[in-house]
Each structure stands twice: as structure tokens, then as C-alpha cells.
Amino acid sequence: MGAIHVTVGIRNPAEPDRVWKGRFLVDTGATDCLVPRQRLESIGLAPKGRRVYELADGSEIRMDVTTADVEFMGEIIGATIVMAGAESEPLLGLTALESLGVEVDPRNQTLKRLPALRLK
Predict the structure, then answer these.
(1) Which pLDDT band holds residue 109 (cuts at 50, 70, 90)?
(2) Helical (H) or strand (E) element with 18
(3) Cα–Cα distance between 67 and 45 in angstroms, integer?
(4) Domain spans of the chain?
(5) 59-82: string of b/e by CB count within 10 Å (b at 16+)?
(6) Number of neighbours of residue 5 by Cβ within 10 angstroms
(7) What is the pLDDT of residues 30-68, one digit of tens each?
(8) 86 backbone φψ class: left, alpha, beta (φ>0; ψ -120 to 50)
(9) pTM of the predicted model, to two decimals?
């Protein structure tokens, strides 16, 4: 399967006019979204805590996290955002996809909106 990218807006919930937009890699292996720290700080977001994440190679890393409004496919959801290094590619994680009711269509390499959100 090839890479799927989507334009995403990260919005400061306390100051909705402060938004950063970027091209995100859709990563169904990532639980949370990931954005370079300086992009988040530029819209007034600061760390709210730290979490331990497991990387693809099995190692663990403790990273700062914050929360923000995440806008893609014409809708907004609240999400946990990992504050990453400057060279990190922005990632759209599985929790944000599921919160919006979107799944990856691997055959067409697109995002597909589900007819209804799952509550079960």
C-alpha cells in the first residue's frame, strides 16, 4: 500500500483563529497525531503532559503531548497531539480517524467516510 497524505488544520481551542495547516501522513499504526513542536507553539499550544510511546523498532520514548482541534475532511474533532522534533513529518493517527468516522481504503489509497460512527 502506498502512502496517503491529507491536508489537516491544527487549531488552538482557546484561540480558534490560531491555526496551522500542513500535509499529514495518514498512519494507522500511530495512536495519536504528531506535529513538530514549533508548529504547535506558533499557534499558542504548550505541553499538557508527557506520555511514553513505543516506536516502530520497539524502543520507548517519553514525549510531551497537548490537545487541539484537528480539522480534516470538512469536520473538526478534539485530539491528543504529540509534540515532535522539528524534522518530524506530521502524522494523522488512528484515534483522530476513528473519532471522525473515517477509515483507510487500501485498494484505492484514499480515506473513506463510514456511513455511521461505531459505538459498539
Answers:
(1) confident
(2) strand 15-27
(3) 8
(4) 5-113
(5) eeeebbbbebebbbeeeebebbbb
(6) 14
(7) 999 999 999 999 999 999 999 999 988 999 999 999 999
(8) alpha
(9) 0.91
The upper half-sphere exposure of residue 1, i.e. CA atoms within 13 Å in the direction of its Cβ, equals 14
What are the distances in angstroms from CA 49 to CA 61, 63, 80, 112, 120?
14, 8, 10, 32, 29
Q: 5-113 in CATH: which number?
A: 2.40.70.10
Find out whether 102 and 114 touch, Cβ atoms under 8 Å: yes
The closest of 54, 13, 48 to 31, measured between CA atoms, is: 54
H or E segment to which residue 43 belongs: none
Query: 26-40, pLDDT tens digit by residue?
Result: 999 999 999 999 999
